[in-house]
């Protein structure tokens, strides 16, 4: 049984503004794979930001794609590059991705798909973390939910909590590695139903054993993005 939030997002899907510039019928998208089945992503590649960025750029260029996309509910080996995703007690690490990533050029503008209020923001400055992060609070048909925007430019978090962001407003940009958690430029977009007491941060990756809770609390971002249909 689907949740009230999923039902409302599906009902309103035609109203959402594109999150990134994208021309249907002209721009190509590439589904990107960051699981263990992608043998091109060696330890040497994923642990070197320049090599990792070059890999992403080469894949997009070969495919003639404007963006790479994917990752929701993907079990990713690339998170082994950072201790951020390891358990302090040496237990099960976090590897299951809870958002959708859109890979592209640094500086790519990001637009609000619907109006929302700035809930919180933070510079999560750890290697492999979100870097500059914004969380927006939305309400549709009396149902409140949140969207998390990670790996942004530092200039984008010159905000005020409670500030309103309008639908179609350009409010963020893909950050450079030094400001986005040391990743190839991309946007991490995530829907969150209950953010609890978190501010400026929320898990974007969970343990496989916790997937039932987190995948329910963080439904498929394509409910808003509406991009998978073009893959």
Task: Describe the overall structure.
- This protein has 231 residues and is of the alpha+beta class.
- The protein has a single domain, classed as Glucose Permease (Domain IIA).
- The chain contains five helices and twelve strands.
- An eight-stranded mixed sheet has the order 1-2-4-11-8-7-6-9. A two-stranded antiparallel ribbon has the order 3-12.
- Strand 6 and strand 7 (131-140) form a beta hairpin.
Summarize the SSE layout with pairings.
Elements lengths: L3 H8 L17 E3 L11 H4 L2 H15 L3 E4 L25 E2 L2 E4 L5 E3 L4 E9 L6 E10 L2 E10 L11 E2 L4 E4 L12 E7 L12 E2 L4 H7 L4 H4 L6
CATH superfamily: Glucose Permease (Domain IIA)
CATH hierarchy, class: Mainly Beta
What is the subunit organization of this protein? single chain
Intertermini distance: 27 Å
Q: What's the rounded overall pLDDT mean?
A: 95
Instruction: Specify the helix fraction band.
Output: 10-25%
Principal-axis shape equals globular
The tally of beta strands, per DSSP, is: 12
SSE topology string: HEHHEEEEEEEEEEEHH
Strand residues, percent: 25-35%
What order do the strands of the largest sheet run in, or round the barrel if closed? 1-2-4-11-8-7-6-9
CATH architecture: Distorted Sandwich
In the residues, how many domains can be counted? 1
Looking at the structure, the CATH topology is Glucose Permease (Domain IIA)
Alpha-beta classification: alpha+beta
- Ranges with pLDDT <50 over ≥5 residues? none
């Amino acid at each position: 049984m689907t949740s009230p939030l999923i039902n409302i997002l599906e009902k309103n899907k035609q109203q959402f503004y594109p999150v990134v510039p994208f021309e249907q019928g002209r721009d190509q998208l590439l589904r990107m794979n960051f699981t263990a089945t992608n043998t091109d992503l060696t330890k040497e590649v994923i642990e070197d930001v320049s090599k990792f960025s070059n890999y992403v750029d080469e894949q997009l260029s070969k495919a003639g794609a404007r963006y790479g996309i994917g990752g929701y509910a993907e079990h990713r080996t690339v998170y082994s590059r950072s201790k951020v995703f390891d358990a302090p007690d040496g237990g099960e690490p976090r590897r299951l991705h809870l958002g959708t990533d859109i890979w592209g050029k640094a500086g790519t503008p990001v637009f609000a798909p619907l109006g929302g209020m700035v809930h919180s923001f933070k510079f999560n400055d750890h290697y492999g973390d979100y870097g500059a992060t914004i969380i927006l609070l939305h309400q549709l048909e009396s149902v409140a939910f949140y969207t998390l925007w990670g790996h942004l430019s530092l200039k984008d978090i010159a905000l005020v909590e409670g500030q309103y962001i309008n639908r179609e407003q350009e409010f963020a940009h893909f950050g450079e590695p030094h400001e986005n958690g040391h990743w190839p430029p991309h946007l991490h977009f995530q829907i969150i139903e209950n953010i609890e007491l978190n501010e400026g941060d929320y898990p974007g990756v969970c343990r496989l054993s916790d997937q039932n809770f987190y995948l329910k609390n963080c439904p498929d971002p394509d409910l808003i993005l509406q991009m998978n249909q073009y893959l």
